[in-house]
Amino acid sequence: MRIAWVILVLTASLWGCNKETSARDSQKDKQETRQASHSEEATPKPSKEGVDAKAETAPAAGPTAEAASRKTEPRPQPKGRFHDIPFNPQKAMLVGVDSETENLMFYDVWEADRCREPYIGDVKYQFGAIAKKPLLFEEGKTLVKDDVSPYWGMADLAYPSEYEMSVVVDKIDLEQGVATGHIDFKAENTTFSGPFSADYCPTRQKDRATADPIAGMAWSMTPVEPTSIADTPAEAVLFGAPFAVAHANLRKSYGSRELNVFGAMPQNPCVGRPGGWSRDNGTEWKREGSEVDVFSILFRNEALQPTAGLAGSYLEGRDTPYAGGDYASQACLVEADGVRSGCYVQYQNMSFVLDEVDGAAKTFKARVYLAFDDSGKSFLVGAVKGVLCE
Fold first, then answer.
1. Which of 344, 373, 377 is nearest to 23 (CA)?
2. Residue (of 356, 358, 351, 363) closest to 387 by Cα position
3. pLDDT number for residue 282
4. Rounded to whole angstroms, how far apart are CA atoms 212 and 205?
5. Are the C-beta atoms of residues 163 and 185 closer than 8 Å to each other?
6. How many angstroms separate the Cα of 90 from the Cα of each of 34, 58, 60, 76, 180?
7. Whole-structure pTM over 0.85, yes or no?
8. CA distances (Å), origin 164, targets 29, 38, 106, 144, 190
9. What residues pair up with 370 in beta bridges, in sequence order?
10. Which residues are within 8 A (CB) of 44 and not within 5 positions of it... i.e. 6 or more apart?
C-alpha cells in the first residue's frame, strides 16, 4: 500500500471536502491527491536500509518552526530541449512519496518555499524521474530506465516510445535539505542533461506490518463497543511515526462537528484538520486548518449534539464496502517541511463516547478508538480531554 503526499492549492473550498468520496469511489488502498500524483501503484517491499535513518531526522508531530519558514534561493539546474521547446527548470525537488519511494521533479517556474511545488497555474512545463518500483535515491547509485521512467509534463508533445535515462545522486545533505546529482535523458529530438540541486523532501511515514497494543487494546478491524474503550490517557502511532497527544478540540465544521486529537499544540486551539493552501494576493501562501498532525472524527449528521453519553462507531474494512453513516474518521500527517500534508480516509475502525461535556467551562472528555489499515497501521486509543469550540 502506498500513500502519496502532494501539495494542495486551495481556491474556493477546503481540502477535505470531497476527499472521502473520491477515495471510496476508487476503492483502492491509496490516499487521494489534489494535484496530479506522480506516483504509480506498486507492491510494498520490506523497508530498505537507510529508510529509518532518514525518517528519524524528522520531528514527531509536524514541522519545526525553522523548517516551516525556511526559504530557498534559485540553484543551477539541468537544461535541455524537447523538440523545439527549450526547458530550463528553475526548481527541482526530490520528494518522498512514501516510506519506500522517492521521485525527482523539475519545474519551469521558481517557488521559494522549500519542498513546495510551484503553483500549478504558473507551471507550463515539468519533467521528472519517477520510480517504477519502491525505490530510494541513494548516494552514489546510478538509476537507469529499469529503475525510473520520465514524468512527461511537456504540453502536447507525445510521450517518447524510446529513450535513455540515468540519474545519480551524489550527496544528500539532511541538515540543509538539499540533494545534488546529475541527470541525463535522451529521446528523439530531445535532450535534458546536467547537474541538479534539488530540495530534499523525505517523508515521515514508516511502514509496519503489525501494530503493537496500546492502552491495553489491540489494533483491529473488528467492531469495538464504545463503553469498552480504555479510560487511560490516549496513546497513538501515526503512519508508523511517533504521536504524543498534546491537545484536543470538539468544534463546529460546516454546520456539523469534528473531534480532533493533535500531536502538538496548534497555534489556534480551535483549528480544524490540516487543509490546503491558498495564495493571498496571488503571492503569499496561507494554510487552511492545522499545521500539525491530527486524528479526526467527523460528525456527518448535523443534528448530532455534543452531549455526555453520545457514542458512535464506524467500520470500513477491505471486505466491508462503504455504507455511509453518521460518523467517519481521518488520520492526517504534516511532513517535517511544514508544506506537504495528507490524510488517510479509507479503511478504518472507529468508536468513541463522550463521557463529559461542560458547556459552561467549554471542556469535554472522550474515549476514542481509531484503527486505520494504512501501511503504517495508524492507531489511537484512550481518553482525551479538550476544549469545546462553538
1. 344
2. 363
3. 60
4. 17
5. yes
6. 23, 26, 31, 8, 15
7. no
8. 32, 20, 18, 8, 10
9. 350, 380
10. 1, 2, 100, 134, 207, 375
- Which pLDDT band holds residue 255 (cuts at 50, 70, 90)? confident
Report the amino acid identity of residue 318: R
Q: Where does 174-288 show beta strands of DSSP type E? A: 178-187, 190-201, 235-238, 241-243, 247-253, 256-262, 277-280, 284-287
C-alpha cell at 96: 518522498
- The three three-digit cell numbers of residue 255, written as one number: 454546520
CB 341 within 8 A of CB 328: no
Closest Cα to residue 329, out of 315, 308, 309? Answer: 315
358 vs 386: CA distance, rounded Å: 11
Q: What are 305's three cell numbers?
A: 449534539
| Interatomic CA distance for residues 269 and 388, integer angstroms | 10
Q: Is the pLDDT of residue 350 over 60?
A: yes
Indicate the DSSP class of residue 228.
Answer: G
User: In angstroms, rounded to a whole number, what is the distance separating the alpha carbons of residues 163 and 184?
Assistant: 10
User: Which residue's entry shows cell 526559504?
Assistant: 71
Nearest to 43 by CA among 5, 96, 2: 2
Dihedral sign for Cα 341, 239, 128, 89, please: positive
CB 147 within 8 A of CB 132: yes
Q: Which amino acid is located at 241 in the chain?
A: A
What lies within 8 Å, CB to CB, of 351 at 6+ separation is 223, 224, 225, 226, 229, 311, 312, 313, 314, 368, 369
Q: How far apart are CA 301 and CA 256, in angstroms?
A: 7
The answer to whether 162 touches 149, Cβ cutoff 8 Å, is: no
CA angle 183, 79, 67 (to 5 degrees): 70
Interstrand relation of 241-243 and 126-131 (parallel, antiparallel or unpaired): unpaired
Coil, strand or helix: which one is 129? strand
The answer to whether the CB of 128 falls within 8 A of the CB of 103 is yes
Amino acid at 70: R
Tell me how far apart the alpha carbons of residues 272 and 275 are, in angstroms, rounded to a whole number: 8
- What is the C-alpha to C-alpha distance for residues 143 and 2, in angstroms, rounded to an integer? 21
> Which of 226, 222, 244 is closest to 235 using CA atoms?
244
User: Phi, psi at residue 54, to the nearest 5°?
Assistant: -70, -45
- Residue 94, pLDDT > 60, answer yes
Distance, in Å, from the CA atom of 227 to the CA atom of 231, rounded to the nearest integer, reads 9
pLDDT tens string 132-170: 999 999 999 999 999 999 999 987 888 999 999 999 999
